[in-house]
Write a structure and sequence with these properties.
Its main location: cytoplasm. The protein is built from 7 helices and no strands. By secondary structure, it is mainly alpha-helical.
Length: 216
């Protein structure tokens, strides 16, 4: 009875993480939209919703702490709880980065540097796909999908490096340099989101076999 109850609570925790993942994906979608369209209403929405994302993570952590205290799990059960906390933390940090994206989007001239913005939007959609796929790997325990994150992360890293390398080549004005600096911030936030998506995949692999593989 106790073990059955534990596994039911563990499934509830995993459902909470799936819900948090969906909310964070929505935040990222809105941050991408806000950046592309300089949509102040969406920017405000992303910033204000961060408190709810933090609350979801706290609820997951509290549930895990209670399960550890009451059930004293060992071996694979304890590993699953540790993974739950780690993934919740990584998702919360993605939420923070979407807020950073939204805040910086307010300072970017919507009509300037359209080509650079297009590069960033392509990079953002790739990172978004990574996050979505890593959540699928968690929900389905699909290690093949999780392992693919290494190649995806390399792609985003290459995009980031190429973007930064070409960013300041032709700009001389003070205003232009400031705008490009803001675009560099956006690029860094997207690259970090891809890293956290990779982290989620690493935790999926760790939960399955107890070994930590560095996919970054």
């Amino acid at each position: 009875m106790l073990r059955s109850s534990f596994h039911q609570h563990l499934e509830n925790v995993k459902d909470q993480i799936s819900h948090l993942g969906k909310e964070v994906l929505t935040q990222f979608d809105q941050a991408i939209h806000a950046f592309e369209h300089s949509d102040l209403d969406v920017i405000k929405k992303v910033i204000s919703y961060d408190e709810q994302i933090n609350k979801y993570e706290l609820e997951i952590n509290n549930e895990v702490f209670q399960l550890i205290a009451r059930q004293q799990p060992v071996a694979t059960d304890l590993r699953s709880l540790i993974v739950a906390m780690k993934i919740a933390g990584d998702l919360e940090r993605v939420g923070d980065l979407t807020v950073d994206m939204a805040k910086v989007s307010k300072r970017i001239d919507a009509e300037s540097y359209l080509e650079k913005k297009h590069e960033l939007l392509t990079m953002a959609l790739d990172a978004r796909k990574m996050l979505e796929e890593s959540l699928v790997s968690f929900q389905t325990k699909n290690l093949i999908v999780a392992q693919k994150m290494a190649a995806f992360d390399d792609k985003v890293d290459a995009q980031f490096g190429q973007f930064i390398k070409g960013l300041f080549q032709n700009e001389t004005s003070e205003h232009g340099a400031e705008q490009l600096t803001q675009l560099a911030f956006i690029a860094r936030y997207i690259e970090r989101i891809a890293d956290y998506a990779t982290n989620v995949a690493e935790w999926v692999i760790y939960e399955s076999n107890g070994e930590h593989f560095d996919l970054n």
